[in-house]
Amino acid sequence: MYVYKHTDTDQNGQWLWTVGYYEPNGEWQSESDHSSEDAARDRVHYLNGGSQPELLEAAIAAVNSDSGNMRTAEGRRPIRLALKQLAQAIAKATGGE
Which residues are CB-contacts of 18 (< 8 A; sequence separation ≥ 6)? Predict the structure, then answer.
């Protein structure tokens, strides 16, 4: 299980949050560093199997954007269809709507 902890403070008093996990022998294994506790908490949530709502939002925005309206010579919209399928798959995998 991934966790985060305060690991350092810079010269301006800003805390550094490190995401990682403990080996069975107690040794700390660092995965990433973050300048905010919120970012560290979001990364831990994702690494422990949670969703990344910003991915779903980005996929939905891409599906709804004008760039998804590109057509082939046959009039099909493969890009929009692929993005829609991606958004649906992400929503299903993350429990989104």
Answer: 4, 5, 7, 8, 30, 31, 32, 33, 34, 40
Q: pTM for this one?
A: 0.54
Q: What angle do CA 81, 75, 84 make, to 5 degrees?
A: 10
Helix (H) or strand (E) holding 87: helix 78-94
What would the pLDDT profile of 8-35 be if each residue is shown by its tens digit? 988 888 899 999 999 999 999 999 999 8
How far apart, in whole angstroms, are the C-alpha atoms of residue 25 and residue 88?
41
